[in-house]
Amino acid sequence: KQWYQRRVRVTSQIKETHTLFDTLLSLQPQVSNVEGESTESKVMSMAQDVREHLPELIDYNNTLSVLAEDRHSPMGVVLLQEILRYNNLIKNISRSLTDLEKGIKGLVVMSEDLEEIFRCINEARVPAMWSKTYPSLKPLGSWTRDLVQRVDQFFKWAQTGTMPLLFYLSYFTFPTGFLTAVLQTSARANSISVDSLSWEFIVQILDDVNITGQPKDGVYIKGMFLEGAGWDKKNCCLVEANAMQLVCEMPTIHFKPAV
After folding, report:
1. Is the distance from CB of 125 to CB of 139 less than 8 angstroms?
2. Nearest-angstrom CA–CA distance, 247 and 112
3. Of 229, 221, 223, 258, which Cα lies nearest the Cα of 246?
4. What is the pLDDT of residue 11?
5. pLDDT at 228
6. Whole-model pTM?
7. If you write DSSP's letter for every residue of the chain in order, what string do you get?
8. Which of 143, 160, 184, 200 could cross-link to 74 by cystine, CB 3.0-4.6 Å?
9. What is the β-pairing status of strands 225-227 and 230-232?
10. How far apart are CA 133 and CA 174, in angstroms?
C-alpha cells in the first residue's frame, strides 16, 4: 500500500511537471535569443534536421513483386497496408516541411496548419497532422528516430519477403489487423475456423539473441511494457515493481493461436 501511494505521488508529480513545462513553452516570447538567432532560423534548422533523418519511401511495386503470390496472404496484405500508411506519412511530412520552409522565406502564405507546425517544431513537439497515423507521446527528436526504426522493420520485410523474427507490435499502425492476420494464417494452416481460435501468451525465458527461428505457429512479439508491476524472468511471473520504477519492459512474448 505504501509503495502504491508513492507511485501515485510520483505519477501525479510527473503530470504536474509536464503541465508546467507546457505552460512555460506557451508563454515563451517569439524573439531572438542571446546568440542572435531568430526563431525562424531555429525552426528552419530543426526542419532541415528532420528532413535529413526522414526515412526513404518503401517501394510498393517492388514489394508486390517480391511477395508474388503471398501478396494475397493475410500477412502480405498487412505488410502492403502498413507500407501505404507509412509512405503517406513520410510524403505528408516532407510536403509540409517544404511548405513551411517556403512560408518562412515568404514565398507562400503561412496557413493555420503551417503556423501550427511552426509552433510545434519550435517547441520540439510533434505536429498534430503528423501524429494521426499512430499515437505517440515522444518529443520531436525521439519521435523522428522512432519513425526511422518503425519504417526499417517494414523495409526489411518488404525487401526480402521474409517476416521478421521478432515483431515490434507498437510499430504497426493497426495492430489489431496484424493480430487478426496471424490468427487467419494459423486457421488456414490447420484447416479450422478462425472464430474458434484464441490466444496463448508464452513469455520467453531465453534472451532474444538465442531465438534463432520463427515459431511453428504464431509470432514473437517484442516491445511490450508493464506499468505498476515488475517481471521475474527467472520464475516467469509478475512481481512488485522496484522502488520508483513506473514502467518495466517485458521479455519477448510468443503470441500463439490456440483452440
Report:
1. yes
2. 37
3. 229
4. 75
5. 80
6. 0.87
7. -HHHHHHHHHHHHHHHHHHHHHHHHHT---S--TT---HHHHHHHHHHHHHHHPPPPP-HHHHHHHHGGGGGSHHHHHHHHHHHHHHHHHHHHHHHHHHHHHHHHTSS---HHHHHHHHHHHTT---TTTTTSS-----HHHHHHHHHHHHHHHHHHHHH-PPPSEEEGGG-SSHHHHHHHHHHHHHHHHT--GGG-EEEEEE--S-GGG--S--SSSEEEE--EEES-EEETTTTEEEPPPTT--EEEPPPEEEEEE-
8. 184
9. unpaired
10. 9
How many CB atoms are closer than 10 A to CB 236?
Answer: 12
* Residue 17: pLDDT band with limits 50, 70, 90: confident
What cell numbers appear for 108 in the block? 507562400
Cell of residue 105, nine digits: 522565406
231-234 contacts, C-beta under 8 A, 24 or more apart? 231/203, 233/205
Cα 147 from Cα 195, distance rounded (Å):
34
